[in-house]
Amino acid sequence: MAVVSNLLARARLAMPGGVSSPVRAFGAVRGDPPFVARGSGAEIFDVDGRAYVDLLGSWGPLILGHAHPAVIEAVERAARDGLSFGATCPAEVELAEAVLRRFPFADKVRFVSTGTEAVMSAVRLARGFTKRQRIVKFEGCYHGHCDALMVKGGSGLATFGVASSAGVPAEVVAMTEVLPLDDEAAVEELFARRGSEIASVVIEPLPANAGLLVQRREFLRTLRRLTREHGALLHFDEVISGFRVAPGGMAQLSGIDPDIVTLGKILGGGMPVGAYLARDEIMQLVAPLGPVYQAGTLSGNPVAMAAGIATLRELDRPGTYEQLERLGAALEKRVATSLRDAGIEHSLSRVGSILGLWMQKSPAPRAFHAIDGRAAERYARLHPLLLAEGVWMAPSYFEVAFISLAHTAEHVERVGQGLDRALQKLAVLVP
Length: 431
Ligand code: PMP
Fold this sequence. Notes:
The chain is α/β, with parallel strands linked by helices.
């Protein structure tokens, strides 16, 4: 414990909140964040040697689990040849082709280093292509911390209950319209009013930043139809769903071709990689071919590309998505049993290996306003009890659980038993 408290004090002296990204500070749950020393398969280990079954997977990238041998080997091999060249390397071409094979609607892809950067660049590209200003986003969706989309987002923003961020000019967000999810009429109405001004509609086609708000296919189809009718672009932000729900993400699963897709997380297999992709007509506007400027010193970094290639190669093995579905279903069932036995009203949302836990009765919400935020307090008390039982879940109610190909039925049972015990203790705290 001494190691942790010392590290925590030093971290808080040296970094705002002691972290490099806000939710890691555990501000939305009780207790202090453990410091992670290492990960292996489905588990992480803190600096005191305690093991946890990891249901967060670095917030999504680790679909193979921690330190997968094929990924580590690829990274080590690439690193020995040098960390960065600032010139195009063969691995970039290989990963670009691998991405385009999985997202056949697109002709070209540009690599960046984070999901935020991908979204920010895709917004600029949509504006450059359509010569329009207005961007539409949805309440409860998070697209990184790009200024134009820092409006009533999910993730850290929902967690801390703020509608936007300080430091974002009002003029910038004045060009962003925020609509409720799951509401065709609201989108119809906006397009009827401002259709000719809209550059793009940005959506997480499987919103996973305010719990898991599974959308009806009909809603996504309506977005596709209206954007087409009005000359706007449909931008699927698949930073979470890309490669996770299917090789070609929600674009594949929904059968809807968007105009732009943004990727991150799994694409880099734990290394910093993001990307945006579209058909040629749009991508030819990107510098150096066209006038939409976007660049990056470390973009297409050879070590990160190697991690991405190795990750996609492993995912290509037969049966991987079936395995994720099987284990996701097992986790859903086990968590439901725990909650039911503890007498807690709940509903669960799940798509494959992503699980959303709602401490409110069915039906599971599909829009941000349908979330009963009162459960967040109960979750805040449950979270440290779960950690003490060796279960690592997101430090916020407004997040989801991820499982990986390294998880097994035994991990699911460890989670179930940990949850059973944590819920018993919670009942004593909050009768
Ligand atoms: N888009 C979505 C859908 C995300 O979930 C995230 C991050 N959770 C981002 C964009 C931003 O990605 P990054 O944190 O890599 O900047």
